[in-house]
Amino acid sequence: MVNPRAGQPAAAEDLVDVAKLVTAYYAVHPDPGDAAQRVSFGTSGHRGSAFTATFNEDHILATTQAICEYRTSQGIDGPLYLGADTHALSEPAQVSALEVLAANGVRVMVDARGGYTPTPAVSRAILAHNGSGPGARGSRADGIVVTPSHNPPPDGGFKYNPPDGGPAGTDITTQIQDRANELLASGLKAVRRIPYARAAAADTTGKFDFLGSYVSALGQVVDLAAIKAAGVRIGADPLGGASVAYWGEIGERYGLDLTVVNPNVDATFRFMTLDWDGKIRMDCSSPFAMASLIARSREFAIATGNDTDSDRHGIVTPDGGLMNPNHYLAVAIDYLYRQRDGWPADAAVGKTLVSSSMIDRVAEGLDRALLEVPVGFKWFVPGLLDGSVAFGGEESAGASFLQRDGSVWTTDKDGIILALLASEITAVTGHSPSQLYLGLTDRYGTPAYARIDTAATREQKAALAKLSPAQVSASELAGEKIIAALTTAPGNDAPIGGLKVVAASGWFAARPSGTEDVYKLYAESFRGPEHLAAIQEQAREIVAAAIG
After folding, report:
1. How many other β-carbons are positioned within 10 Å of the β-carbon of residue 411?
2. Does 423 participate in catalysis according to the annotation?
């Protein structure tokens, strides 16, 4: 159900009380005996709110100590790059983390300008250090980004990026999570900590110019000269997030016709329009959250948005409005693999299994291998590092790709380069990405795609996560023979934590939500909306029969 106020400007009653939120961060202590109040790493770190005892100082102290101990166990003693976004809880959490990191003798690099730090800038810094060093085990860098991504203003988030620069895998996060919860249960007795003033002044705390380092290298991954030469008029909306200073610097440094349409930072995010459920959410893939920028689409050849830590992208064109993330991924892949002469000839196209099958068809048309992996950008990290995957993308508008010479750029999602790529595509082809997508549909067909949430108990969600293909008794999906019933991803045989059923011209995938009592149902048809509805209906029946 879409809230009747979705897409409308936020009102006073929608705004978080920042003072009360920050007070709760320090004053509220989680109950280690309550599973909901423990440290829990999802696909993008630990997230929660100080109001619900799910993101408080205790969580950050315990998690940071656990990271320090993990680093020691792995012999990681290079610098740790520490970044934070613009959420109200990010600054307090960054302070808490630094107090523990300094007490543990960790060499920490904080932003030299005292500004906000996008996730891709941290990933880039880690990789740049590790690539330029002697490669010795002890010299490796890693990082922490304090961000809940596009989540509402009351939320906080804390994620760890190991030396490969990407999101930590479950083998790492499980260790950190379990140790953090042990520390919580023991009353934080083993947590080492010094006062912030001492931590900030410690010899181990250094400065790093995240912005300058990142922006100065952008020409290695995007053809900024082509954008400048074509005079592409760009409107960039950071949505009050960490990329706010980056966009102005990019425009000035590279001589682009670029306007930062909203240069404001406010922890209440009062300038946002409400998302589909009536909440403030900095989701650059949502037409409701992006309503203000969409309304200005005629002012620019390309208008773009980023979420709060800038790892996601939203692309707005005058002729197409806000592009569906799947559509833009398909266009970006088709363009890049045709244009990037420096990319390895055998580099695969990476996609998550809930992304559109249009990508499968584009990859086949490019004569490129397809790497289909479970949900989570971490699965693309090895391929981006060694060049065996040149592009990795998720249906939730997160992606990254190799530099123009075929070397790694970032191993975490980078919404800034995906946004700039839209302008490069326009400059080089003379067409907007939305126009190019119509060309792809002429070639490969027009998919109808949707994701819906369906209520499910915890027991049902657990059953869904443990399904086997044998539990699917149906032989057809919406009138077509079922080609595959998958519980592991075709690209790497990793468990998908759910089920995907594939037919010739349609598919569905069902996965339990990690935070709500629902399961997510993704479905797609190349035979139109009616066929999509039939797939969805049968998908619910198949899932219900399998999980009870």
Report:
1. 27
2. no
